[in-house]
């Protein structure tokens, strides 16, 4: 069965992160549902740098559906909308309760997840400019961080979005599938699930 992935977007979402995440997960043959968390219910919105993004549906339309992963792009404005969306917070709480993957990048781990104490014991990273919002003992200065005990994947920003998306595939479908998706993209050598695995 094809894995379904929920990617919420909002006004102010970081477009580079959103598009990279959506593109890479589509390349992995996942069923990616892009849902608008915009409070007005608009499907089309301006991202953080003015690029227009369009969702497939409203978040409320898929609130009761199950997803293999919920992937939350960053961008400070978008992360603040996520933080203030009672519906999205409840969806993430349910995802966590069910033991399914939650992934968040850039501002969102600090602005949404930490604000609501959704993962109060998890290690995580976020955009370095916001690291003071995460307790030092749980902060990791790594481009991509996975807390296996909480099934939480976090990453730092637009420049880490590709490896973040590839790691989502690795967590959902294994390193071999991640390698198959990554290699044709000509990523940085350290992103290859190739020589690293053989070492």
UniProtKB/TrEMBL annotation:
Please verify whether the record's keywords include Magnesium. Answer: no
The organism sits in which domain of life? Bacteria
Q: Which CDD domains match?
A: GATase1_DJ-1 (cd03135)
Record-given protein name:
DJ-1/PfpI family protein
Q: Does the keyword Repeat apply?
A: yes
Q: Which InterPro entries match?
A: Class_I_gatase-like (IPR029062), DJ-1 (IPR006287), DJ-1/PfpI (IPR002818), Prot/Nucl_acid_deglycase (IPR050325)
User: In what residue span(s) does the DJ-1/PfpI domain sit?
Assistant: 3-171
Q: Which UniProt keywords apply?
A: Repeat
Question: What's in the GO CC field?
Answer: cytoplasm
Per the UniProt entry, what species is this protein from, by scientific name? Vibrio metschnikovii
């Amino acid at each position: 069965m094809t894995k379904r992935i929920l990617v919420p977007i909002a006004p102010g979402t970081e477009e580079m992160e959103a598009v990279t995440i959506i593109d890479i997960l589509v390349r992995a043959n996942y069923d990616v549902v892009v849902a608008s968390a915009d409070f007005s219910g608009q499907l089309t919105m301006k991202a953080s740098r003015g690029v227009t993004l369009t969702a497939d549906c409203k978040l409320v339309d898929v609130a009761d559906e199950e997803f293999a992963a919920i992937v939350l792009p960053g961008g400070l404005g978008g992360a603040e909308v996520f933080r203030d969306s009672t519906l999205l917070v409840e969806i993430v709480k349910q995802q966590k309760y069910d033991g399914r993957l939650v992934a968040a990048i850039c501002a969102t781990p600090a602005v949404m997840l930490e604000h609501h104490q959704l993962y109060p014991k998890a290690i995580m990273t976020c955009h370095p400019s916001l690291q003071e919002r995460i307790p030092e003992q749980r902060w990791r200065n790594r481009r991509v961080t996975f807390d296996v005990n909480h099934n939480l994947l976090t990453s730092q920003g637009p420049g880490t979005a590709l490896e973040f998306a590839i790691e989502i595939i690795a967590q959902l479908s294994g390193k071999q599938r991640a390698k198959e998706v990554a290699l044709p993209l000509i990523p940085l050598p350290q992103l290859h699930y190739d020589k690293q695995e053989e070492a």
